[in-house]
């Protein structure tokens, strides 16, 4: 029994520590919340809202911003967590070397072609960002809503069964927020 617990959860627990170290000193847009809380919340959304308990997917959720927002690279993740999780995290990462519009187009193409595990992590990321957007100034909130809509539209044409319900939940939440902005 204890061997099974360790085999199932060790990698996820190590990813939590890895992400906490990688994001050390980073803050959310409010300037008060440690950034790492976002990746923990994304993992919790995957598990508790979208009902995905696969430890590999939860690990990717915890690590989803390490390549994009820290000095961590694909090789670091492959070495510590294996090539599959490194690939999933890479698919969740924008190439910041590209100009903004090109980067966004490439990222949407990545999301469209991504496996369900990547899409479910991105949907949790979108949901958490939307929940955080309520506390932003109007211009930043508008940008967050626009990004969410763009990413949802990118994934809409290639939803598998595990992601369809999550996509509908996030899309519905976005619609509710947008209706509230128009009132």
The biggest sheet amounts to:
none
Order of helices and strands: HHHHHHHHHH
Shape assignment: globular
Structural class by sheet pairing and helices: mainly alpha
User: If helices are DSSP runs of H or I spanning 4 or more residues, what is the number of helices?
Assistant: 10
CA-CA gap between termini: 55 Å
Quick structural overview:
The protein has helices spanning 2-22, 36-49, 55-63, 66-69, 74-81, 83-91, 100-113, 116-133, 138-156, 161-182. By secondary structure, the chain is an all-alpha fold.
What does this entry look like structurally?
There is one protein chain. With 183 residues, the protein is mainly alpha-helical. It has one domain (2-182): Hypothetical protein af1432. It is 75% helix and 0% strand. It contains ten helices and no strands. Helix 7 (100-113) crosses helix 9. The radius of gyration is 16 Å and the shape is globular. The model has no long low-confidence stretch (mean pLDDT 92).
Question: Which secondary structure elements does this structure contain, and how are they paired or packed?
Answer:
Elements (H helix, E strand, L loop, with lengths): L1 H21 L13 H14 L5 H9 L2 H4 L4 H8 L1 H9 L8 H14 L2 H18 L4 H19 L4 H22 L1
Helix pairs in contact: 1-3, 2-3, 2-8, 3-6, 3-8, 5-6, 7-9, 8-9, 8-10, 9-10
Task: Identify the notable features of this structure and list them briefly.
0% strand; Hypothetical protein af1432; 183 residues
């Amino acid at each position: 029994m204890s061997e099974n617990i360790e085999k199932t959860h060790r990698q996820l627990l190590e990813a939590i520590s890895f992400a906490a170290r990688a994001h050390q000193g980073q803050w959310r847009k409010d300037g008060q919340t440690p950034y790492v809380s976002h990746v923990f919340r994304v993992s919790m959304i995957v598990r508790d809202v979208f009902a995905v308990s696969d430890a590999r997917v939860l690990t990717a959720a915890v690590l989803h911003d390490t390549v994009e927002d820290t000095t961590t690279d694909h090789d670091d993740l492959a070495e510590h967590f294996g090539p599959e999780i490194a690939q999933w995290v890479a698919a969740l990462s924008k190439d910041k070397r590209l100009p903004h519009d090109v980067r966004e187009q490439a990222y949407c193409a990545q999301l469209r072609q991504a496996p369900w595990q990547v899409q479910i992590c991105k949907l949790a990321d979108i949901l958490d960002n939307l929940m955080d957007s309520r506390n932003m100034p109007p211009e930043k909130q508008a940008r967050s809503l626009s990004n969410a809509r763009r990413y949802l539209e990118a994934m809409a044409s290639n939803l598998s069964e595990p992601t369809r319900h999550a996509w509908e939940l996030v899309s519905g939440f976005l619609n509710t927020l947008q209706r509230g902005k128009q009132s």
